[in-house]
Amino acid sequence: MVAIVTAEDIAMSYGSTSILKGVSFALEAGESLSLIGSNGAGKSTLIRCLLRLEPITTGRISLFGREIQNLKPSELRSTRCRVGVVFQRHNLVPRLSVLSNVVHGALGRNTQTFGSMISGITLWSHITAGSAHRERAMECLERVNLADLAHRRADSLSGGQSQRVAIARALMQDPDLIIADEPAASLDPIAGEEVMGLFSELCREAGVSLIFSTHNISHAVDFADRMMAMKSGRMSIDCPTGSVDLKALKAEYA
Ligand SMILES: Nc1ncnc2c1ncn2[C@@H]1O[C@H](COP(=O)(O)OP(=O)(O)OP(=O)(O)O)[C@@H](O)[C@H]1O
Ligand SMILES: [Mg+2]
């Protein structure tokens, strides 16, 4: 099996405060991995380190077989283009249409992750996008069952619909890996379930590897092949979801 992500004994600090303390794991191609842990456990920090948005102090992180600390800026950009990123708040450009927001995915960028691109991105519109991009964006919207809303302004959508657009935007990149930080956290239980179901189904269908964090233990078990739990910056569980004791897990982490 090919490792898509490898973290080897990584540590990370904010100033003198140690946040990640020797985290190791590997994610194989096509595998989905959930990440649980209480507030402040280090889930978002780990995700930011995987994208090299924060520097690690020791250890090694590799994406697609390349150690990310050693990548030149252009290599880092092309590596990030292979990763679709979805956050808790969808970060759509509010005044643009749903279709234009999905077309942004073709830039291989995420507006929150790559803040410097925001001004360029907000000027982007589907009128200037090539027809191939628009067609592909429509296909991605169809995959999340939102093609009928393609021309609606993004700020007129519900939370669940917005998050489905964010998924379509990530798919538009044709990524090898999707990393999602609490993608269902701002959604009601039904929309959250729907979005997570869609996420795992689309990733499985397309052979895309997936890492997502969540506070919903059932989502962590139902929508991933493997789960990891973090506690105070350390990995406390790393196991196949089929083998977990849901009751014990809920008692400890819910
Ligand atoms: N920019 C920052 N500067 C200093 N400390 C930070 C910063 N970001 C996060 N931290 C600290 O790092 C620790 C881990 O935070 P992180 O956001 O990774 O946790 P989390 O597991 O994602 O929590 P949550 O479930 O609340 O999202 C926390 O103690 C937090 O206060
Ligand atoms: Mg977090």
Summarize the structure.
The chain is of the alpha/beta class and about 250 residues long. It is about 35% helix and about 25% strand. It is built from nine helices and ten strands.
Q: Can you walk through the features of this model?
A:
With 254 residues, the protein is α/β, with parallel strands linked by helices. Helices cover 34% and strands 25% of the residues. The protein has 9 helices and 10 strands. A 6-stranded mixed beta sheet has the order 6-7-8-3-9-10, sandwiched between helices. The protein has a 4-stranded antiparallel beta sheet with strand order 2-1-4-5, with helices on one face. Strand 4 and strand 5 form a beta hairpin. Helix 5 crosses helix 6 (159-172) and helix 6 runs parallel beside helix 7 (189-206). Residues 109-119 have low confidence and may be disordered. The chain binds adenosine-5'-triphosphate and magnesium ion (MG). Adenosine-5'-triphosphate binds next to helix 1.
